[in-house]
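Chain A, query sequence.
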Amino acid sequence: MASTDLLKKANLFESLSHNQLKPIIQVGEGKSFNAGEEIFKQGQKANTLYVLVDGGVTLRIQAEEEIDLMAETLKDTGSVFGTASLMTSRISNVTARCKKNTRVFAIDSGKLQEIMRRDPLIGFEVMKKLAQLYFNRLNSTRAGITNLFKIFKFQTRKPVVFDTYGELK
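Chain A, predicted structure.
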């Protein structure tokens, strides 16, 4: 069983008190995965929120034409993933795969949502942190795309990416 100290390291739960974290601890369990093992796959039903204890996880997006894009690598204790489990659709938008042997604290998201409904302050704090997490990931993705455009511009000597693809003009 994890401790409230572990959850305090997770940005999603860092603003909660130890007393507020106790019911969340009770709806989770420790799990271990081997290097290369898939924790969940893009497109699958998302029922679990994960907090990284140790190890490393890559989050990848499977795009069209078998292009596999790395969205993020998580290696810090307290990193949170499987956040789609807290969304309305509850469908994973990435695939999570272990880079090395990994331990996580897996939280039943349905039970977590029930805790959040019973205590709106917990719900507000968690959702506020979740919004910030997605905002940060969006900005990171934007920076990556900007860098790709810069590389493309340098390699093709085209002033604008869209000049290369007539259909995008």
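The CA atoms of residues 55 and 102 lie 4 Å apart. Residues 164-169 have pLDDT under 50 and may be disordered.
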